[in-house]
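haha ok so turns out i had the wrong file open the whole time. this is the CORRECT one, sorry everyone. sequence first:
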Amino acid sequence: GGGFYFISLLCVLQWCYKRVCVAYGTRPEGVDGGWGLWTPWEECSRTCGGGVSSSIRHCDSPRPTIGGKYCLGERKRFRSCNIDECPAGSQDFREIQCSDFDNVPFRGKFYTWQPYRGGAYSKCVCS
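then structure:
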């Protein structure tokens, strides 16, 4: 059909193998992917009290082609950051997260949200 004719014009005296023009009688080898460089570490998720930062890399040095294997290993990595305790009297990160929702109506009303501190549950005792 027309599609084959179009491809044959692009691959003069060659044949198309997996979208690549190759000489008659040869079969190109696949190229396995290789990892690129890690990106710089992202900003820490917290300014104090222990946060997380991440960095990524791409499988593009080189990209896998013609059936080559994708890179093995981790695409994203993490590390701890700003692990020093927060200054006394500073707002806890949970309080900050909760306060972000103070101006968002919940079931038609506004609330001042407080973090759950994991109160102790009363044990049931059978006598």
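The radius of gyration is 29 Å.
again sry for the mixup
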